[in-house]
Amino acid sequence: MWMSSLKNGGLSGLKTTWSLGKVIFPITLIVFLLQYTPVLPWIMEKISPFMRLLGLSGDAAIPLVLGNFLNLYAGIGGILSLDLTVKEVFIIAVMLSFSHNLFIESTVASKVGVKIWLIVTVRIGLALLSAVIINLVWSGGSDIAKYGMMPPQQAEPDGWGEIVLLGLEKAGFGVLQLAMIVIPLMIIIQVMKDLKWMDAFSRWMSPATRALGMNENTSTTMVAGLVIGLAYGAGVMIQAVKEDGVSKKDVTIAFLFLVACHAVVEDTLIFIPLGIPVLPLLLIRLVTAILLTMLVAYIWNKVDAKKEKELHYEQDYNNSI
Q1: Whose C-alpha in 98, 167, 196, 210 is 20 to 30 A from the C-alpha of 34?
Q2: 85 in helix, strand or coil?
Q3: What is the pLDDT of residues 252-280, one digit of tens each?
Q4: 8 Å CB contact between 27 and 107
Q5: pLDDT: is 112 or 86 the higher one?
Q6: DSSP-assigned states of every residue in 102-148
Q7: What are the two backbone dihedrals, phi and then psi, of residue 85, each rounded to the nearest 5 degrees?
Q8: SS3 245
């Protein structure tokens, strides 16, 4: 049994890594190269006037663009290069928690069957709405933020040859890192399935998933996203959707929850060096995810019930003729 689980889990992990690697590698390379073109500076210049509506200075466009084009670490690097108030840093942190790494994570969502436009719209919408609300309700945080640590300064690449090589290195490392996470996880999950542990786990999680308007077979998808994140947890999610028979409705609702609240440990702890309160940051993400998911599930169930009722009436009418 053990050898069969290792083999099946390993093959599943390799297939998933290949599928996601074809997305992650080119996107990482393209976005990295864009940093050394006029494109990113042009985008920052265009969105700077809108920063005031969010309670931010024009310079705050830098970490927001870097975080959304690249990842949270790039966004944090942008924050560390600026003199911002505690309130500004907190607003940026909340926005980037909802909306970061848009290209890769949104494309990954499409691999599970969720529309890219839906994920992008929800993530950007949550980021903007949260910034406006925080700016309106919080009158404090005017002190200059004191950062706990600074990342080591990396030498700038010399010429496009070094830029391309560095981009290829980063893209390749991204796929390698994905494989190192996804393959062992797929093996572990395969073993858990063969031992029937996943069935017990689904039953244990079922009250929470039902409360959020989903069936219990979404538990694997939810846990993978909450613990690992959208990008690295995608392999587990894709496998879970295929093998557990998760419906399109449930996977969409699950992803709406996860776009608001995923990788809760890592994405919360990495903001500690910025000198902001991270517990409110986590609570904002969690409460938003729960409310958003329950609202969407309620509306979706109402629409389905209405359609089913209309279909029932139509069938009764046809039978009476």
Answers
A1: 98
A2: strand
A3: 888 888 888 887 776 787 787 788 888 99
A4: yes
A5: 86
A6: HHHHHHHHHHHT--HHHHHHHHHHHHHHHHHHHHHH-----SBP--S
A7: -80, 165
A8: coil
Residue 228: CA count within 13 A, CB half-sphere: 23
Does the pLDDT of residue 42 top 70, yes or no? Answer: yes
Residue 144: phi and psi, rounded to 5, are -70, 130
Residue with the bigger pLDDT between 96 and 205: it is 96
**72-103 per-position pLDDT tens digit:** 877 887 787 778 899 999 999 999 999 998 88
Closest C-alpha to 241, from 229, 225, 226, 228: 225
**Across the chain, which distance is largest between two alpha carbons, in Å?**
80
Tokens of 194: 């063969």
Question: 118-145 in b/e burial notation, b at 16+ Cβ within 10 A?
Answer: bbbebbeebbbebbeebbeeeeebeeeb
CA distance 165 to 159: 10
Q: How confident is the model at residue 320 (pLDDT cuts 50, 70, 90)?
A: low
Report residue 211 as tokens. 């409360």
For the chain, give the number of residues: 321
pLDDT confidence of residue 96: 93
d(CA 190, CA 2): 10
Location of structure tokens 């393959």: 183
Place of tokens 């300064």: 153
pLDDT in tens, 148-194: 654 444 667 778 888 889 888 878 877 787 677 777 877 877 777 77
Helices (H), strands (E): how many in the chain?
A: 14, 0
**Tokens coding 219:** 């538990």
- Give the residue from 114, 81, 78, 111 showing the smallest Cα distance to 96: 78
Q: How is residue 18 written in tokens?
A: 């290949």
Angle formed by the axes of helices 116-137 and 248-260, to 10°? 30
Is residue 288's pLDDT more than 90?
yes
Q: Which residues contact 164 (CB under 8 A, 6 or more apart)?
A: 33
